[in-house]
Design goal:
Length: about 150
């Protein structure tokens, strides 16, 4: 019983840290990511598919670089495309985002393996998950993607 209470307390602490914008591991809360991106201190890479961008828009200021190709396989040129978006600077601060944090966590791993040194994951994603509400429910700014 003590283990269950301890797990519940730890889960609440992780959610609280995420909600106030502190990194929990390699994660950053959506509001903190938006603030950093708006001030020019972070590039957000939306790794979802173009069809998802059309449906919900992209985070304001984000660059859309899909992690997967049309048949849902990881794109081998994903890291190169991110590097190009960052002007070749693999030390630039970058955050990945997807729908609920799974693909963006994988994208973060791929980028780290490719030599990017300052990568975090917006783990709550656009749609939220069981811990936090997500970009959309937090009513953070989005932009349409008419050319997707």
């Amino acid at each position: 019983m003590r283990h269950i209470r301890l797990i519940a307390v730890l889960g609440a602490v992780v959610a609280m840290l995420g909600a106030i914008g502190l990194a929990a591991g390699d994660e950053i809360a959506a509001p903190a990511a938006y603030e950093r991106a708006a001030s020019g201190n972070l590039t957000i890479i939306d790794v979802r598919r173009p069809s998802e961008w059309r449906e919900t828009g992209l985070p304001e200021g984000a660059v859309g670089i899909s992690l997967h190709n049309m048949v849902f396989l990881e794109r081998g040129d994903f890291a190169a495309d991110v590097a190009a978006a960052l002007g070749g600077d693999r030390d630039a601060p970058v955050a990945t985002i997807c729908a609920a944090g799974v693909r963006s966590a994988r994208a973060e791993e791929i980028l780290r393996d490719a030599g990017f040194t300052n990568v975090v994951n917006i783990g709550e994603g656009m749609m939220g998950n069981d811990r936090v509400p997500g970009w959309i429910r937090r009513a953070l700014p989005r932009r349409p993607c008419p050319d997707c």
